[in-house]
Every structure is written in C-alpha cells, then in structure tokens.
Amino acid sequence: MMWFGPGGRQVIVPVRRGTPQADWRTAMGLLVQWFKRPDPFDTFTRYIASKGLELWGRLLLICSLVSVAVTMSLLRFSDQGIHNQITSVINAMIIVATLLMIIPFACIPTFTRRWSYVFLVYAEIGVPAGIFLNKNPLVGLLQCSVFGLFGAYIAFFHSSRVQTAHMIFAVIVLLVIGHQVAEYTDPALAVSLGFLIFSSITVVPFTCQFMLSLLGTDAENSELDPLTGLLNRRGLQRAVDERGVAASPPREASYVVAIVDVDNFKTVNDTLGHEEGDRVLRELAERLRECGGNHALVSRFGGDEFVLVDTVPVGSEEQLTKDFARKLRLDNRDPVVTTSVGIAIASTTRLALDAEGVLAELFRIADEAMYRAKSSGGDQVLLCHSFGQAAAD
C-alpha cells in the first residue's frame, strides 16, 4: 500500500494481515459464494460469441468426442480391453452414441443449456460404462481421468452444484475400479494411481471453477456502480456488446436508448449536501429500473447521467414517454428534483442491434435529444423515432 510520509515522500506501508480465524472465515465465505453462484452457461456462451470463438469452441468439443470414439474403437483390438461378445456390443453402442453426440455440436444453430445437459448425461453414463468393460481393470482406472475433462467443461459452463454431483459420482466410480485393480494386480499401484487420478478429477476442476468464480465476481463488481448498483460505463459497453452478438431481437419490437440527466444536480449537492445528493441518485436509479423491462440494461454513465437500453413493443412510444416523465420527477423532495430525458427508438423490423453503427447512432440521437430537452428548460422527455422527428412531453 502506498502512503505519503513526512515531506510528501511516498513510502510503502505493509498491508495488515488478518488473524488465522478471520482468514478461515473469509475462505469459508468464498466457498459458500462459489457454491451459491448461479449457472454461468448463458453468460459464458455470450462471452464466447462476443469474442468470435463459438466455432472454435464447438470444434474443440467435437475433437474431444472424436478422440473418445477412437479410443473406444482401439480397445476392441486390445487383449486387455474388450474381451467378450457382451462387452463388444456395449462398446459399439458407446462409440455410436459418441458419434451421435457430435451432430448437435456440428449442426444446431445455437448450443443451448438443454443440449449441454444432454451432453453431460451422456458423459456420466458413457464414461463409467466404458471403464468397466475392460478385461484388465487397470485400463479402466486410467480411463477415469476422462472425468477430469468433463469436470473442466462443467467448470466453465455449469454451476458448482453440478460440479459437486459430478465429482462425487466420479470418485465413487474411481473407488470401485480402484478396488478391482487392487485385487487384480498390485494394491500399492492401485493406491498410487488412484491418488493421481483423484487429483485430476477433483482438485483440478474444483480449482478451475473456484478461481473462475472469484474472477467472475470481481469482474462483475468492477462493472457495477458502487452507489446505485447499476452497470457503470464499462459494464454497459460489455453487456451491449454481448447482447448485440448473441440476442435475437423480438418480433414487432423496438430498440430503445434513453439518456437521463438530472437538472441542476450541483444545486442539490450544494444546498442539501452530498449525502442527500447520493440518496437522490439512488432513488432515480431505482425508478429508472422500473421504466425498463426485465431484460433492460440500466447504467449510471457518469456523475448524474443515466442510460437505459431496452426493447419495447412497437406502438408503445407514447406510454414509454409518459412513464419516463412521471417516474423520473421526484415530487417528494424539496426542492423538486427534475430530469431531462432524451430517447431514441428504432424498429427491429428494419434494424438489428448488432448492425454496424446502429447502436452508436441511437446513443448519439438520444444524447442530442437530452441536451435539447435540457436547453429548453429541463423537466421534459424528448423522443426521437430513429432518424425522424422529435416529440416532447
């Protein structure tokens, strides 16, 4: 930590360490936070799409499935692998199921959470089935390492509850096949390999998911305004980028960008104090949330400036303008707090949010409308129909 000592000189002050008890409570709190963290499937798939990596992700999974099919096929020719007609039939069924799993990865337009769970069910059934088919259980023990690959997949795409269930199931299978190895060959070998594989199927996936949870939480917090809990400028930009790439615009709907600026906010701070000014901003943030739908993006863009990005039904412009005018005027305060609002609206039948320059143009139009409303005395909403005429309320 940097600090200024005598004469304005910079000195380094060591950060105080917590007590072991405090560190333990912090670790347990982070563990509980990891366990309660929601399924990141939608967030992570949108992120991959926004980076243009969706195709490469699919190819990686397809290559993994192909490698499993090839491995199971080669075991048919091993003296230590498939050894009778029953195991041969089951082995063939696993190979066919693995190849069939490639189809959704290669063909469906959007890889949904439902398909992801189908993939996991296939893995949790197919891997143990393949493990217990071999004549030599040592081969099956080595195959348990495949659980680690699926654990890594879960770490990125699914919740900690799914990961926990997967690890418990994988450890049970490992213990059963490890017991068979101990009886068939060498107990010491079974224990040593078992510990190694145990680490690959539990410690590695857990560590990956736990660290991703911490990084995800920190990233989310860095994109939130600490005063209002809304997205900050950076968070809004990321959310808009993801929505522009991944979201499908609803039919008969219009994209809306609204920019809100508090009238004479400096006067509020100077006369009532900064604490009261903060309360005004928090109340306006809550009211702006109410103006948007369930999927609206709401941001505190600057000191007293807010932004809303949303979709609304076509033809609801008049009601939208009335809602902004009514909710963003704080009559319960003395003096009354008013706002200047600029709204730009564009029909999705003509424009898509990810069309080049469209969103930037909507922001520009909303910003101009907001400044026109403010220069006209404030306390009004000015709505512009995408590149068209303005209507004031």
Describe the model.
There is one protein chain. This protein is an alpha+beta fold. 61% of the residues lie in helices and 12% in strands. It contains 14 helices and eight strands. The protein has helices spanning 20-36, 41-50, 54-74, 85-107, 113-131, 137-143, 146-157, 160-184, 187-222, 233-246, 265-272, 274-291, 317-327, 358-375, and strands at residues 2-4, 10-12, 253-262, 297-300, 305-313, 339-347, 380-385, 390-392. The strands form two sheets. Strands 4-5-3-6-7-8 form a six-stranded mixed beta sheet, sandwiched between helices. Strands 1-2 form a two-stranded antiparallel sheet. β4 and β5 (305-313) form a beta hairpin. α1 (20-36) packs across α9 and α4 (85-107) runs antiparallel to α5. It is elongated, with a radius of gyration of 29 Å. The two termini are 52 Å apart.
Quick tags:
14 helices, disordered N terminus, 8 strands, 393 residues, six-stranded mixed sheet, 12% strand, 61% helix, alpha+beta
Distance between the termini: 52 Å
User: What is the ordering of alpha helices and beta strands?
Assistant: EEHHHHHHHHHHEHHEEHEHEE
Strand content: 5-15%
Low-confidence stretches: 1-15
Quick synopsis:
61% of the residues lie in helices and 12% in strands. The protein has 393 residues and is α+β, with helices and mostly antiparallel strands. It starts with a strand and ends with a strand.
